[in-house]
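User: Okay, second chain of the day. Same drill as before: sequence in, C-alpha cells out.
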Amino acid sequence: MRKACVSLPKHIFCKEDIAAGTAAGTVHMIMKKSPNIKKKPSAGKTRPTGTEGEQPSFFDAVYEVVRKIPRGRVTTFGAIAEATGTRLSARMVGWAMNAAGSARIPVPAHRVVNRMGMLSGRHHFATPTLMQELLEQEGVEVKDDQVVRFKELFWQPEERKG
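Assistant: Same drill. C-alpha cells below.
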C-alpha cells in the first residue's frame, strides 16, 4: 500500500511518518516558508478515503473531530490530537488545520486555538483578522488575539473509538 505523501520544496513527507513524529520538526519549519501544500500525485487508482474497510487518514480523523466543535465554542490542537488517539501530535493537528481549506467538506478551523486560548493559527487565514472575525460572529469574544473566557468556552472532544 502506498503512503499518502505531501511535497514541499525539496522535501517529500509522508503523513504516516509525520504522525509518528519522524519529520514533524522539519515540516513545521518549512511550513512557515511554504504554506501552499500540494498532495503528491499517486500512481494508479486509489479508493476515496472512508470506503469500507479502509482507515481514514490522520487529516480525515482531525477534520472529523473539528467538524463536531459546536458554534461559539473552541478547542485546542492538543485536545484534538488526544481525541484522534495521537496524544503527542498537536503540531500535526496544526498542519492539518493549515491544509483544511482544501477539504471537500468545510472544516471550521477558526475554532481551534492553542492551549492558552490564543489564535495561533490566525496567520494562515486569508487575512490576519479573519479567524477572530469568524469567532466573533459565533459570539466568542476575542481580545488581543486571545479567547476571553477560554476555560468556559473550551470544548473537550470525545476520544475516538476503534
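The helical segments are 15-19, 24-33, 58-66, 77-83, 90-98, 130-137, 150-153.

User: Thanks, on to the next one.
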